[in-house]
Structures are given as structure tokens and as C-alpha cells.
């Protein structure tokens, strides 16, 4: 039962991270702006801003997660970012969930 809930949380956090402004019906305030950052030059500053935007959207709009760390590591050869999000589910505070995403621009 906890495993299914964790998978549900993973999918929802991933969708929160990838939302653009006005994409979620009736909640235009829930967005991260991550897709816009993917078209910037790959620098350490952009990497930190990307991690901060992901952190902000999870802290502000996902009350079921207690966020530990967000890391955005640029993969220069692949022209993408490897994002690692570590959090505790509030109902299961002993299990650290590590969610990894590969963010890359499509166009």
C-alpha cells in the first residue's frame, strides 16, 4: 500500500515539476517554469536556478512531501539536466524517496 502511494506521489510531483503557467485547470499559480529554463545556456548558475524552481514548486504546492534535497546536474554531452529530488512522504517519514528525472529540451 505504501509503495503504490509513493508511485502516485512520484507521478504527481513529476507533473508539478513539468507544468507550465496556466496548464493546470483552475490553478494557474501551480507551475515551475522549468521548461523555460531548458532553453538557457547550460551554466552552473542556470543549474542552481533550475533546482531552486523545482524546490519552490514542491514546497509550496505539495503538502504531502517533506523535501530534503534537489540537485540539477548538467549533462553537457546529452544537452540535458539530470535532476534528483529526495523527499520524505509525510505519512511514511522513515522512507526517503529518491526521484530522478532527465530533463531535456525537445526543440
Describe what this molecule looks like in 3D.
With 107 residues, the protein is α+β, with helices and mostly antiparallel strands. The protein has three helices and three strands, in the order αααβββ. It has helices at 2-18, 34-37, 44-61, and strands at residues 65-75, 80-89, 92-104. Strands 1-2-3 form a three-stranded antiparallel β-sheet.
Task: Describe this structure in a few short sentences.
With 107 residues, the protein is of the alpha+beta class.
Secondary-structure map:
Elements (H helix, E strand, L loop, with lengths): L1 H17 L15 H4 L6 H18 L3 E11 L4 E10 L2 E13 L3
Antiparallel strand pairs: 1-2, 2-3
Secondary-structure element series: HHHEEE
Q: Level of helix content?
A: 25-40%
Low-confidence stretches: 1-8
Question: Looking at the structure, what is the overall shape?
Answer: globular
- Indicate the mean pLDDT: 77
Beginning-to-end CA distance, first to last residue: 39 Å
Labels describing this entry:
3 helices; disordered N terminus; single chain; alpha+beta; three-stranded antiparallel β-sheet; 107 residues
Amino acid at each position: 500500500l505504501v509503495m503504490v502511494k509513493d508511485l502516485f506521489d512520484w507521478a504527481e510531483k513529476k507533473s508539478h515539476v513539468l507544468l507550465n503557467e496556466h496548464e493546470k485547470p483552475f490553478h494557474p499559480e501551480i507551475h515551475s517554469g522549468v521548461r523555460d529554463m531548458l532553453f538557457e545556456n547550460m551554466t552552473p548558475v542556470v543549474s542552481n536556478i533550475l533546482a531552486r524552481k523545482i524546490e519552490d514548486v514542491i514546497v509550496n504546492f505539495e503538502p504531502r512531501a517533506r523535501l530534503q534535497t534537489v540537485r540539477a546536474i548538467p549533462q553537457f554531452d546529452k544537452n540535458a539536466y539530470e535532476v534528483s529530488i529526495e523527499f520524505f512522504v509525510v505519512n511514511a517519514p522513515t522512507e526517503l524517496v529518491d526521484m530522478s528525472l532527465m530533463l531535456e529540451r525537445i526543440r
